[in-house]
UniProtKB/TrEMBL annotation:
Its main location: cytoplasm. Mg(2+) binds at S174, T194. It is found in: Cytoplasm. It comes from Alkalibacterium putridalgicola. This is GTPase Obg.
Length: 433
C-alpha cells in the first residue's frame, strides 16, 4: 500500500539536573558544623505520548523546539532540590520517532496513551553531604547537575487521508486544496499512473486538523481500473467524509446535476460502501455570473429526487465560504466511525522498539596544529560538566577521575610533556608530570 509521509524535524532537550551545594552547618554550640549541602533535583524528561484525537503533524510545523525544565539546585541545611516535571508532547497514532542525524529509530507509537521517553533528564549533582568520609569530614566538593539529553529528531507519520475531494477535473479541486491546506508533505509517486494524488493538511479555525486528498481521475472507468487504478481507490476507501466539488458556473458547458449523478454512480460501481460515507456538496465558482441560477436549479433537481444534501456555496478563487465547510467537515469526522486503519500494514510489519545504545568509547585524544591536546568523549565531557570548578577539592577529584580512566598515562604514551596544554570541552589546563 503506497503511503504518504508527513515528515517534520524537531529539537528536543531534556532538563539538566540541579547542581549540588557546598554548605556547612553554622549553629550555636556546634563548633564545626558538618557538611550540609543538598543534592540537585532530576531534570525533566521529554516524553512523547499518543493522542488519538490528532491526525497530522501540523502542530510541529509551528513549534519545533521542546524543552523540559531543569531540576532545582541543592540547598543548604541538607535540602535537596526539587525534581522537574516531565514535558509531555502529544503525537498522532502512527508516529515514528527517529534520530534526524543517525536515522536510529527511537519509538513507533501506535496506541492511544502509549508513551516513550525521547530525551532523558540529567540526574541531580550530589551535594557535599555525600562526599563526607572519616578522612575528609568537611569536604568542599559538590557536583554540578548532569546535562539533559538534547536530540534532533525526525517525526514521520504515515498519513491516511480522512477526507476525499471528488468531482470532475477542472471543477476547481486543486485550487480548493491549495487554498485550504497549509502544508505540502512529500507526495508518494504512484507508479501505476501519471496522475498523482495531491494531499494537504487542513487546519480549521478552531485548531482541529485533518488530511484532505484530492481524488483525481475518479471518472467513468476508474472502477474498472482505468486511469488511477485500484491502488489509489483503496486509499479512498479509507476516507471517512467526501467533499463533492461541483462547478456551478457551467462555463465548461457541463451540467452540475448530471455531474453530481455521474460521480456518485462511479462511487456506487466501485462500491466499497463509498456511497454511504457522509458527503458534503461544495458549490464552487459562486463568484461567476450564472452560478446562483444554476444552484437554484440544482437544489430543485435534488429535492425532486429526495436527495438530502448539505450544500455549501464557496468560491475557491475569492476564498469565500471555505472556513464554514472545513469546520463542518471536522465536525463530521468526529462522529463518523473509523475504518480499520492499520489492518493491512500491521500484519506485514513486525513492530520493534529499538533501544538506542551509543557505543561508549570512553575518550579520544587528538592533537591540534598548535600543539594543544584535546580530550573528547561522552564520559569525559560529562565529568567535566558535572565538576564544580569553584572548589579546589572538586578540581582535585576531577583530576583523580581522569587519572582513574587512564587518560594521564595515555597522554604520556602519546608524547605529552610537562607544561603542554590539554583541553576538555572549553576548559584548558597544563599537563603536569
Amino acid at each position: 500500500m503506497s503511503m504518504f509521509l508527513d515528515q517534520v524535524k524537531v529539537n528536543v532537550k531534556a532538563g539538566n539536573g540541579g547542581d549540588g551545594m557546598v554548605a556547612f552547618r553554622r549553629e550555636k554550640y556546634v563548633p564545626d558544623g558538618g557538611p550540609a549541602g543538598g543534592d540537585g533535583g532530576e531534570g525533566g524528561d521529554v516524553i512523547f505520548i499518543v493522542d488519538e484525537g490528532l491526525r497530522t503533524l501540523m502542530d510541529f510545523r509551528y513549534n519545533r523546539h521542546f524543552k523540559a525544565e531543569h531540576g532545582e539546585n541543592g540547598m543548604s541545611k541538607g535540602m535537596h532540590g526539587r525534581g522537574a516535571k516531565d514535558l509531555f508532547v502529544k503525537v498522532p497514532p502512527g508516529t515514528i520517532v527517529k534520530d534526524a542525524v543517525t536515522g536510529t529509530m527511537y519509538a513507533d507509537l501506535t496506541e492511544h496513551d502509549q508513551k516513550a521517553v525521547i530525551a532523558k533528564g540529567g540526574r541531580g549533582g550530589r551535594g557535599n553531604i555525600r562526599f563526607a568520609s572519616p578522612r575528609n569530614p568537611a569536604p568542599e566538593i559538590a557536583e554540578n547537575g548532569e546535562p539533559g539529553e538534547e536530540k534532533e529528531i525526525e517525526l514521520e507519520l504515515k498519513v491516511l487521508a480522512d477526507v476525499g475531494l471528488i468531482g470532475f477535473p477542472s471543477v476547481g479541486k486543486s485550487t480548493l486544496l491549495s487554498v485550504v491546506s497549509a502544508a505540502r508533505p512529500k507526495i508518494g509517486a504512484y507508479h501505476f499512473t501519471t496522475l498523482v494524488p495531491n494531499l494537504g493538511m487542513v487546519k480549521t479555525e478552531d485548531g482541529r486538523s485533518f488530511v484532505l486528498a484530492d481524488m483525481p481521475g475518479l471518472i467513468e472507468g476508474a472502477s474498472q481500473g482505468v486511469g488511477l487504478g485500484i491502488e489509489f481507490l483503496r486509499h479512498i476507501e479509507r476516507t471517512r467524509v467526501l467533499l463533492h466539488v461541483i462547478d456551478m458556473s457551467g462555463v465548461e458547458g457541463r451540467d452540475p446535476v448530471e455531474d453530481y449523478y455521474t460521480i456518485n454512480q462511479e462511487l456506487e460501481e466501485y462500491d466499497l460502501k463509498l456511497r454511504e460515507r457522509p458527503q458534503l456538496v461544495i458549490a464552487n465558482k459562486m463568484d461567476m455570473p450564472d452560478s446562483q441560477e444554476n444552484l437554484a436549479n440544482f437544489r430543485k433537481a435534488l429535492e425532486k429526487d429526495d436527495q438530502d444534501v448539505e450544500i455549501f456555496e464557496v468560491s475557491a478563487l475569492t476564498q469565500t465560504g471555505l472556513n464554514t465547510v472545513m469546520s463542518r467537515t471536522a465536525e463530521l469526522l468526529e462522529t463518523t466511525p473509523e475504518f480499520p486503519m492499520y489492518e493491512e500494514e500491521t500484519e506485514k510489519e513486525e513492530r520493534v522498539l529499538y533501544k538506542f545504545i551509543p557505543e561508549n568509547k570512553e575518550y579520544a585524544i587528538t592533537r591540534e596544529p598548535d600543539g594543544t591536546w584535546v580530550i573528547s568523549g561522552d564520559k569525559v565531557e560529562k565529568l567535566y560538566q558535572m565538576t564544580n570548578f569553584q572548589f579546589d577539592e572538586s578540581v582535585m577529584r576531577f583530576a583523580r577521575q581522569l587519572r582513574g580512566m587512564g587518560i594521564d598515562q595515555a597522554l604520556r604514551d602519546r608524547g605529552a610533556r610537562n607544561g603542554d596544554t590539554v583541553r576538555i570541552d572549553n576548559f584548558e589546563f597544563d599537563f603536569v608530570e
